[in-house]
Fold this protein.
Amino acid sequence: QSNVVIYGVVDTGFIKENGSDTRMGSNIDNRIGFRGTEDLGSGQKATFELERRFNLNDGTLAQEGKDWDGAANVGLKGDNWGAIRLGRVNELTTETLRTLDPFYQYGVGSMLLSTQRSARIDNTIRYDSPDWMGFKFGASYSLGENMKHVTGVAYDPNRDPGQPQPDATPANVKYAGADNDGYAVMLGYDNGPLTLLGNWSRLADSNKSYVWNLGGAYAFGPARISLAYEQTRDKGWKEGEISIRSKQQTWLLGLEWLMGPGRLNASFNYGRVKDVEWSNNDSGHKDVKKYALGYTYDLSKRTSIYGIVAYSDYDDDQIAGFYRGEGLNNNGDPASYNRDSVTGVQIGITHKF
Amino acid sequence: QSNVVIYGVVDTGFIKENGSDTRMGSNIDNRIGFRGTEDLGSGQKATFELERRFNLNDGTLAQEGKDWDGAANVGLKGDNWGAIRLGRVNELTTETLRTLDPFYQYGVGSMLLSTQRSARIDNTIRYDSPDWMGFKFGASYSLGENMKHVTGVAYDPNRDPGQPQPDATPANVKYAGADNDGYAVMLGYDNGPLTLLGNWSRLADSNKSYVWNLGGAYAFGPARISLAYEQTRDKGWKEGEISIRSKQQTWLLGLEWLMGPGRLNASFNYGRVKDVEWSNNDSGHKDVKKYALGYTYDLSKRTSIYGIVAYSDYDDDQIAGFYRGEGLNNNGDPASYNRDSVTGVQIGITHKF
Amino acid sequence: QSNVVIYGVVDTGFIKENGSDTRMGSNIDNRIGFRGTEDLGSGQKATFELERRFNLNDGTLAQEGKDWDGAANVGLKGDNWGAIRLGRVNELTTETLRTLDPFYQYGVGSMLLSTQRSARIDNTIRYDSPDWMGFKFGASYSLGENMKHVTGVAYDPNRDPGQPQPDATPANVKYAGADNDGYAVMLGYDNGPLTLLGNWSRLADSNKSYVWNLGGAYAFGPARISLAYEQTRDKGWKEGEISIRSKQQTWLLGLEWLMGPGRLNASFNYGRVKDVEWSNNDSGHKDVKKYALGYTYDLSKRTSIYGIVAYSDYDDDQIAGFYRGEGLNNNGDPASYNRDSVTGVQIGITHKF
């Protein structure tokens, strides 16, 4: 038992958004994990991580069928050469970029998410360098799941893979054309007040969609300002499932301010999408501006309460549906959300163990 | 790791009832839990509970998809003001009433269950008072899951929600008319030999069905006698799923007797149901008498073996089907069980850790 | 918490076989378990085991819906009389036979598996004798799941249960004719360099299919040679699911050699199947020869890396499909694999905690 550390987060509260009743939901993802390290001598270690993610409001898994959604990997680690892990791990690009978001991509204040992001990825070998005077390097390689190059029954190879195929069942889609391995590279610098990072990644089975981003942060006194830019080229698939073909650009400006017994967080996001197959209009771009403000009050090192307000102003209902993950409608076009601006309010409690 | 306590129960054995082969099954629900308490100072604490429920005979979850069926919540607790929890918690009314049942609502000897009970409930905020010279008070509020007031496609709003709609799929039913929040209040007194309690509750998404009950227990020497009465008004829905519209009354007389290295348990239940839409007869009531006797032999404080015998005498096959949870038949009427009396015998072993 | 021991294995790496891309997969089954022992005095103990099995490459359960696939049982144990467990346990016959396989029935080098084997079984009471000067005896009894002798709707009782019925849904098949309890007996001797064992078993709901085997091993210096023979009579059902009616014979010759900081493993398998309803040819037998070689390098007592190569030479594509678990094709015949020989290469890392 001394080989295993148990840790976790429990977080829930109430969320109210326009167009929906108050619901119970979390800010930081709920989790319980088991991890350990074995000293192999000569500065070498063996490591493992197993981490469940779940919904605290109803006790269900965060993602159906993912027993260890948060992490499931084994690895080796050396003081001088870094660490290597195999299995299900954090996606390197997402893991680093989200550190620039004052809301860490959680809750109603979360930064705008690229459609080609996945917080964790399967079938992956990931390398992390040690810290070289602030510089860090990371890389990962992920195997695709289409092992036998099967083409789905309902899949028409003459159609553009970026064109959603409404008659394709998920099982068929899974093995359809999006048949590529994935990889990611990360370069970072983190020393004193300054943080800089850059990423390039593509997910496995994504029809070679890709994302790149650049960002940085600077801390002075109790405040930290961050800035990031991300560009996404979505070619219509994500991890073997249909996504919405598009080009996306996201700008983030963030502020964290230690204030009283807690932290004030604020951010401004600007998102811009083009080349989506909107049913009525194939040309031009649409955008969204998002403003978020929150305060976290620490009851102790492990327990805090929070309140967050966010306002998103979309160009129209369709771009709202795109950013809020409404998926595709029956015509195979991006589905609309029923309004073009959304205010979200969230309060809750976070406890770490 | 010092922040987490691991606990649980493993229990299985054999059950034989008329009309079915011997099967393997448990008495006390199988579970493994992780819980912890953090001292925040000034008599204040943060708490969390995560508890799995499962079947020991085949290693499956007790309820499909419920990763933490037993509990999933975070809360605060104060010596002087009580405790508040958010998430998935014990339903207050069931938690207290079952303490009057010598079989604690487990196994073949369990008291008759109201169709508007749920041992645990989702999306809930629950308050428990501290003990004021024996007096206790509790209250809970649960959000409904029909967040957008959606009406199911196959749902006909002109039909009585108490009328089962055989063509309604579960997904449609889930979002059909039963669109209410739930709440519960409990008043209790527990001091020396005397226990008294009363409850009123309605579940979320139950078409405002409700239950109330009153009960008490008195201990003298090695014996404890308990008495309870419960009344249910089932309006055809339970947590968003179709239930059987009916009025139910239940009387319970219970006896627990410390005897030798264990306990003798005995109970008599009388249940009475009316206003059910029986296919052949809409009027009048039907009843059941249930007699249960059991003995639990303690091998240690944590391990015991048990034997239980129960006999249920139903008015007819239909009311047997109603109480044994046979659900609805193809006509949308309550399904019959294939006999009007059932003897159940159960033996097994319980181990707590 | 002192009542619970947490243990586990994490193992993953890469597997490449002819006819398929490289995939991520494990050698030793991934698991995390919780177990405990309570001293009841007088040499008696209470025991429990709860063990999850999962895939490390993607964090999913090893078997969908089996929360505790590895073990879920409670038991009693006495120094003088042995141990009894109830619930989900290791199948006795498989547990013992696999000790003669240098690859322990894991990974690409695994010995040929009988179609009437199950590593773990449900609804079981299992007895294990204490060690009597090297002699051991074990027995288990498993209840069938067809409690009410239901015959499936799509099941034609006039058809031979060994004949797959393509129109039978899994739910129907589950409750179709294969309605028997299961049991197993094991006799073993293990003393000094010599191991001998023999088994007879039939699974529950297997239409009384059965398996028996005999084997032994002898250790001299750093080497251990093992030999086993197994015979299977598959009557078309396995644990309530359709299997492929057949007679199977398997011979195993194994070698384990402690060499350097690890172990060399090698095996030769010869498998022979007859009386299968091949679509084109009902008579005669078909066979496979399998050669496997592996080396495990220990980085510590708990962590090791391994490499395995295996070559299987099948008589034809159909027998390859049979041994590789391709199931039934649309005609209800055993499905072919698309080649008659397969080379598998596997490398990876195992960490125990």
User: Anything to note?
Assistant: Confidence is low (pLDDT under 50) at residues 149-175 of chain A. The interface with chain B takes residues 4-6, 8, 10-13, 19-24, 30, 32, 52, 54-61, 64, 299-300, 302-303, 348-351, 353 of chain A (CB under 8 Å).
